[in-house]
Amino acid sequence: MISLQAVASYLPSQSVPIRSMQDALGLTDAQIKVFERFYGLSHILRDPDGTVVDLMLAAAGKLDALRGREHLVRYVIQARTMPVIAPYPVNPIHDVRAFLGLEHAEAFAVHNHACASGLLAVELSGRLLAADGDPDALALIFTGEKTFTPAAQTVPGTAVNGEGSAAILVGLDGDRDRVLSYATHTDGRFSAGLSLSDEAAAEFQQIYPETLAAVLNEAVEKAGLTLGDLALVLPHNVNRVSWVRLCKLIGLPLDRVFLDNVPVTGHCFCADPFLNYQSAKELGRLQPGDHYLMAAVGLGATFSAMVFQH
């Protein structure tokens, strides 16, 4: 059974009010007010002097469980939202692998599920490790990207993006944070992502809550549970209002969705659920034996959910 052996997060120290980004993002006063008052957004985090390699290494530097186990790492995986994050022939995940002394491991990136690629990487790493047949082997996953272009800085009308990162050590065994199920659904009608027509974008907003609700229900059913059995949902941090609507739709108490990071980190691409895991754990929101769910939606449109037992 797949388990998260350890999770470490890195949150840059520079906190930027989204109001100060109004001109750069081309937002009106009314749009800023919607982001702040309706969507629950306030600040995002930036690491202005750091590269994407620096983001990954900063998270890896806090992953104490990796120390002395480097030789067990078979795969180093970057789960990312954007298909291109560096100019050819630069390959950030190869640079990170070399810096950490993991040249013996296979290194690659996954991005086809956009912001849901982090959960895909966990599921994929479990399948790869199981096929290898070594019960002690590990996979090291990185999430989090730079907001280096205007398109990377915001999801229009939905979110403002930040630069937090996470490092996740995955193994086949463990008595904590075991993966109980995984569900994912891609609706190819919306594959154009940010280039959707106004009509298609409106249709995506309409089907969004019902589709995500169906995937959440599928994940908990696969785990032999109900939504009521979940101690916590760790979401992607696009905004608060989308989760308020979803909770009303599925009858889940809003206080079971960890929304503490939404106003302070912004949406950190694939890293959100893992950043929320670390924060919830530090705040004592997860107790041994608790069932919890990570959820993410990627432009394209991929809806994913994964159920764990802490």
UniProtKB/TrEMBL annotation:
Keywords: Acyltransferase, Transferase. InterPro entries: ACP_syn_III_C, Thiolase-like. One of its GO terms (biological process) is secondary metabolite biosynthetic process. SUPFAM superfamilies: Thiolase-like. GO terms for molecular function: acyltransferase activity. It holds the Pfam family ACP_syn_III_C. Residues 221-309 form the Beta-ketoacyl-[acyl-carrier-protein] synthase III C-terminal domain. This is 3-oxoacyl-[acyl-carrier-protein] synthase-3. It comes from Streptosporangium subroseum. The lineage of its organism: Bacteria, Bacillati, Actinomycetota, Actinomycetes, Streptosporangiales.
